[in-house]
Amino acid sequence: MKLHLVVGARPNFMKIAPLWHELKKATEFLPVLIHTGQHYSENMSQAILDDLSLPEPDFHLGLGGGSHAQQTARIMLAYENVCGISHPDCLLVVGDVNSTLATALVAKKMNVPVVHLEAGLRSFDRSMPEEINRLVTDAISDLLLTPSLDADENLFNEGVDKSKVVRIGNIMIDSFEMLRNKIDSTQSYLEYDLQEGDYCIITLHRPSNVDDRSKLEDIVQSLENLSNKYNICFPVHPRTGKVLEEFGYNSRLIDSGIKLIEPVSYIKFMSLVKSCKFIITDSGGIQEETSYLGIDCFTLRDNTERPITISEGTNRLVSAGNLLKEVEEVMQRSDRGTARQIDMWDGATAARAVNALREFWENRS
Ligand code: UD1
Questions:
Q1: What pLDDT, on the 0 to 100 scale, is given for residue 334?
Q2: Which residue's C-alpha comes closest to atom 20 of ligand 1?
Q3: pTM beyond 0.85
């Protein structure tokens, strides 16, 4: 089976890498790697691809930047050309970014079956671009590979046929396990003059947090307050970097002692995460990684499409207004950082994905 695998934005790389390596072991698959170029800066793309030992993509579309419509439309046009040249038997997309939606739409209209890995997650907040991408991608997918029971239930509630849904677990954990030795032997905190276990990490990039000036002002204020008690390391996403500079918040954060650093590669980042005291984030993947590692995570959002990280993991939803109070409360608890082992978040998800793909293909032909 000639299988197109699409990567575009940073969180896609750690979901595709374990699958790529597993597919390469199986003789009946011919994986073809397509990079849309949605993320294009060295530290948002190549450095991470290198860490994960992903090869040069077979097709690089080079289509980063622009509005949602521009990005989606440009990726659709370019991917349609790729399909005309490469003739896939099947397309596999991951996650919820614009590259996921754009390529799934193209394939489906060309009658190429679509597989969505990380299907079924729902924030039930349709003001999030990712929620639209998830809903549409799931609606047109032929095989839906899910990370958790709540995702299965969301799909069934939407009327998706049970035979299309296969729970395989969380593939990001496979990336972590694949590189655990390297992550364990890296001490990134030393590079940033931090002490093991004595700093917190913040990551922010959601439009709802960083594009709205008054919301960002509240977050900056809250981080200034937090910096009186904790050392803070802040790898700044390009979207956030632009806005912080535009509104003049960079200097305020630096003046309060917060270390603003460039985005870091996968191994370095996971090493920073492993040794930190807690994390403040609005990322989806980090809610999962911290739950797996038993590190307290404070998610600056009103909702999460990953509720299992709250019910089973170490995650809690917070606002700029209650962040300091919540952190203080959790840091005093004797059971902080305790998480339950989540079913199928075990480093063997890629193997289950390959089995599901094999069965899916056998049943079609
Ligand atoms: C995208 C995804 C989001 C994911 C995030 C992870 C969508 C709708 N959003 O958001 O779900 O959580 O990636 O990072 O697909 N930029 C650079 N260099 C880069 C990448 C982006 O400078 O390598 C700039 C772009 O030019 C743009 C901004 O950052 O101005 C936002 O990039 P974009 O890809 O539109 O969305 P993200 O906010 O990164």
A1: 87
A2: 39
A3: yes
